[in-house]
Amino acid sequence: MRRIGDKMVIATQNEGKLREITALLEPYGIECVGAAELDLPDVEETGVSFVDNAELKARAAADLTGLPALADDSGLCVDALGGMPGIFSARWAEECEGGRDFFAAMERVWNALQACGPRASGDAHFACALAIAWPNDGQAEAFEGRVDGALVWPPRGQRGFGYDPMFVAAGHEETFGEMDPEEKHAISHRAEAFRKLVEALD
Fold first, then answer.
1. Main-chain dihedrals φ then ψ at residue 199, nearest 5 degrees
2. What CATH class does 7-201 carry?
3. Is the peptide bond preceding residue 135 cis, with omega within 30 degrees of 0?
């Protein structure tokens, strides 16, 4: 992999994602600058996969700033819903009345699952794609991760963000919304993708 340097743009407007990625990169001495701090515009996610969308966002940020950029695209994939909301996870929250509302989005997911009938499985996974892009030539590399688990209702916990309060990772009892951030970082979909990124850096 090409050298990143000591400064990188994190191409997200999501403060929760920015905190997680900054914490994951901190041991490597890379200064992280968020998209909001640089007043970068949102990029329309027109891809058909998490990797597509992560690369779109990373390339746009790298081109606008002249710095290497890291973008994340991630979401909740529910088996009984054919993998939905998937790449539309944030959109399901944004389509709620009054703007982005992840509690309402969690209700939407749960109601859709209940509509599948009493035998519908609550099995689900979080998926993540991390993409690094370099300015000028558009080169990008992507790394994927996932964590399997199941949905619970009602949501539990105030930690994490997004759909975290309704997701329990396999082998655990706490939701991602209840889990200590360091424990979540050790097992999350984003952490798995990040481990692959770090292996490539090494």
1. -60, -40
2. alpha beta
3. no
Cα distance between residue 91 and residue 68, in whole Å:
27
Indicate which residues carry an active-site annotation: 73
Is 77 in contact with 126 (CB distance < 8 Å)? yes
Contact between 132 and 69 under an 8 Å Cβ cutoff? The reply is yes
Share of the chain above pLDDT 90, in %: 67
Contact 26, 73 (CB under 8 A): no
Question: Rounded to whole angstroms, how far apart are CA atoms 110 and 112?
Answer: 5
Residue pair 169/106 in contact (Cβ under 8 Å)? The answer is no
Find the length of the chain. Answer: 202
Where do we find the tokens 């399901």? 92
Could you list the beta-strand ranges (E) of the chain: 7-10, 31-34, 69-78, 123-133, 140-151, 167-169
pLDDT in tens, 47-85: 999 999 999 999 999 999 999 999 999 999 999 999 999
What global pTM score does this model have? 0.88
